[in-house]
Specification:
heterodimer; A: about 90 residues; mainly alpha; Histone, subunit A; two-stranded antiparallel sheet; 3 helices; about 40% helix; B: about 475 residues; alpha+beta; Arc Repressor Mutant, subunit A; 3 domains; nine-stranded mixed sheet; three-stranded antiparallel sheet; 17 strands; about 20% strand; GatC (chain A)
Chain lengths: ~90, ~475
């Protein structure tokens, strides 16, 4: 299944990437190369193989439900471009 | 004129009652100053990694069991990708093709005395987003900027997705009531919509009666109360009928419910955001749940509504339908248990008074039982007065309303011949104006769209007037003064 320029543009839009026509052409070609490579794998019969969700074969670690304050919340606020009181401020959405 | 059938499926998000967030140790406490419960994980700082909260998993298992779902031994977290200012990582950690629980059902009591089985497609774990407060306008429309508070970011949620089994707005409401009840019995969540601990989106479509295929579905968002869900669905169904009657086609889209205007409005541009590009969350390994864990949760499960239904049927000979109505709200069932212990007569008498008069009153006044002054001893005292023929059942109906409002004893009310009600409009208007002036913060929140706060003002007014204000008049005056 090959993808075309329109597919590449759609994916770029979803990722908020502003690409030139030249870049779109380049990435369309590269994405197709990746898909071609993945297609080779489809030749292998995987009917009886369980899907791999993670490269590490184990269960996830779990935390006890204990609330602990993070000591440097002011530092996190400083990472925001604009702050009012203790709220982050973002430009108009609509 | 074509007859249409309505098809509804609901997606309910409920907070899980944990002390800390889903993937970090920040507190989940509600109502704290903005960004006082944040850390690198729940604000998406580079390099921060999530670690799953064990209690959130236990509560999800508990809820799954209460919804008659299968608990999956292996489930997988996935990234749901979209850009929005309340989502600091630009993806939400959710579950996609392998949720923690699936394939369950609930039994709904219907007004005609029958029951309906509604399928639960799945209930999956995910994290909540932050909260936005818009500046310079009442809502997002026309706002000049927005303030972001990440206290809610990454609070554990369970999303419960129903099958498209509901056929009317009333059934959707009954389903919501049932789910809320289950969440409360299982002690999984406080499940109150006011604090945003329960939220609901509705998928609505219509099709000509007899047609097998579903019609085009519309997703409705922004419904702030159970009543709003019921109304929004009715309004949307009417809109779709009109679209079809005009020879047009219903468009698949997301629409926002505007309670003040009584309509649904298209959320343009939302279509593209449905392309979420889910993929397995690389920062979390699959969640593995063994039989011992499920058995432990089962053992710790509180008495659920269905078990109480059985107990009431067996111990008191109450019909399955009445028992379900009685157990819908855990507070009502607890009230019944207390009253049944005190009352020497036929317990079905209590059932009748609770299910018809008390619940009818609560529905009309849009109140919870806990917001009234009625206690089990008072109800039993009143029933005693009927039993010894001091009062007629008809007079008791009026007395009950007064007890609900004032908490006075039935005996005293009978002796005094009633209590004065404030029905003077001028007097009441003055009181309400004082209350509104004393609560500028709630008033501002109400005007910026948190219309559920009307109940808060009703409560304040009733408290100030010691329950003597006439509730219909309070509602009427509030509608006028809040407009």
């Amino acid at each position: 299944m090959a993808i075309n320029i329109a597919d590449a543009r759609h994916v770029a839009d979803l990722a908020r990437l502003d690409l030139t026509e030249q870049e779109l052409a380049t990435y369309t070609e590269q994405l197709n190369q990746i898909l071609d490579y993945a297609q080779e794998l489809e030749q292998v019969n995987t009917d009886k193989v369980e899907p791999t969700y993670h490269s590490v074969a184990a269960g996830t670690a779990l935390r006890e439900d204990k609330a602990v304050d993070f000591p440097n919340q002011a530092g996190i606020l400083r990472n925001g471009p604009e702050v009012s009181g203790t709220s982050f401020v973002v430009p108009r959405i609509l | 004129m074509t007859e249409y059938e309505t098809i509804i499926g609901l997606e309910i998000h409920t907070h899980l009652k944990t002390k800390s967030k889903m993937f970090c140790a920040c507190s989940t406490e509600f109502g704290q100053p903005p960004n006082s419960n944040i850390c690198p994980v729940c604000t998406g700082q580079p390099g921060a990694l999530p670690v799953l909260n064990k209690e959130a998993v236990s509560l999800a298992i508990r809820c799954g069991l209460a919804l008659n779902c299968t608990i999956n031994k292996k489930s997988v977290f996935a990234r749901k990708n979209y850009f929005y200012p309340d989502l600091p990582k630009a993806y939400q950690i959710s579950q996609f093709d392998l949720p923690i629980t699936q394939a369950g059902f609930v039994q709904l009591p219907l007004p005609d005395g029958t029951e309906k089985r509604v399928g639960i497609t799945r209930a999956h774990l995910e994290e909540d987003a932050g909260k936005l407060v818009h500046q310079g306008a009442e809502g997002i429309e026309g706002a000049t900027a927005s303030h972001v508070d990440f206290n809610r970011s990454s609070v554990p949620l369970l999303e419960i997705v129903s099958e498209p089994d509901l056929r009317s707005a009333e059934e959707a409401r009954a389903y919501l009531d049932k789910i809320k009840s289950i969440l409360q019995y299982a002690e999984v969540s406080e499940a109150n919509m006011e604090e945003g601990k329960l939220r609901c989106d509705a998928n609505v479509s219509i099709r000509p009666v007899g047609q097998k295929e579903f019609g085009v579905k519309v997703e409705i968002k922004n419904m702030n109360s159970f009543r709003a869900v019921e109304r929004a669905i009715k309004i949307e169904v009417e809109r779709q009928k009109q679209v079809l009657a005009a020879g047009q086609k219903v468009v698949q889209e997301t629409r926002s419910y505007d309670e003040a205007a009584g309509r649904t409005v298209s959320m343009r541009g939302k279509e593209e955001s449905h392309d979420y590009r889910y993929f397995p969350e690389p920062d979390l390994l699959p969640l593995l749940i063994d039989d011992a864990w499920v058995a432990q949760v089962k053992q710790d499960l509180p008495e659920l509504a269905e078990q109480r239904v059985k107990r009431y049927q067996e111990a008191y000979g109450i019909s399955a339908y009445d028992a379900r109505v009685l157990t819908l709200d855990k507070a009502v069932a607890d009230f019944f248990d207390a009253a049944a212990r005190l009352y020497g007569g036929d317990k079905k008498t209590i059932v009748n008074w609770l299910t018809t008069d008390v619940l009818g009153y609560l529905k009309n006044e849009n109140l919870e039982l806990g917001q009234t002054k009625l206690t089990p001893p008072q109800l039993v005292e009143m029933l005693g007065l009927i039993d010894n023929q001091t009062i007629s059942g008809k007079i008791a109906k009026d007395l009950l309303v007064k007890i609900l409002q004032t908490g006075a004893s039935a005996q005293k009310l009978v002796e005094q011949g009633g209590l004065r009600q404030i029905t003077d409009e001028g007097e009441l208007q003055k009181i309400i104006q004082e209350i509104l002036a004393a609560h500028p913060k709630q008033l501002e929140q109400y005007r910026s769209g948190k219309t559920a706060l009307k109940g808060y003002f009703v409560g304040e007014t009733m408290r100030r007037t010691k329950g003597q204000a006439s509730p219909p008049l309070v509602n009427q005056l509030l509608d006028r003064l809040l407009a």
